[in-house]
Amino acid sequence: MFLLNFQSKVPIFEQIQTQILRFIEAGVLKPGDRLPSVRQLAIENGINPNTVAKAYTELEKNGYVYNLPKKGVYVAEIDNKSSHEGMIRNVLKPLKDSGISKEEISEVLDDLFPED
Questions:
Q1: For 43-94, how does the pLDDT look when each residue is reduced to its tens digit (9 = 90+)?
Q2: pTM exceeds cut of 0.90
Q3: What are phi and psi of 73, to 5 degrees?
Q4: Which end of the chain is more exposed for a tag (fewer CB within 10 A), N or C?
Q5: Residue 34 — φ and ψ, nearest 5°?
Q6: How far apart are CA 40 and CA 45, in angstroms?
Q7: Quick one: what percent of the chain has pLDDT higher than 90?
Q8: Domain definitions of the chain by residue range
Q9: Thinking of the domain 12-75, which architecture would CATH place it in?
């Protein structure tokens, strides 16, 4: 189910997160669907269970999944507005962290979304 690139500079846990989010957006994973267990996903992909746990924890923190102790991790009901806001934050935070100013971002946004 997961295609991980071990040569990529993108950490494995981020690759797992991204793929799960794409599955959710594409409708492959629906609210209430159970994700593979941490152990199962780790064994299938030859990775450390802590890596899978970190991906699941980040997804849970952002409201995409929820954990039922001793039962598993499930896809959460996602509010599209919250989902869009999360995606925008994921794009803008690295820009902010790299020193790009709010004004620079605003200029580009004004170019991308000109008012009619």
A1: 999 999 999 999 999 999 988 999 999 999 999 987 666 667 777 877 888 8
A2: no
A3: -110, 130
A4: C
A5: -85, 135
A6: 9
A7: 58
A8: 12-75, 80-112
A9: Orthogonal Bundle (1.10)
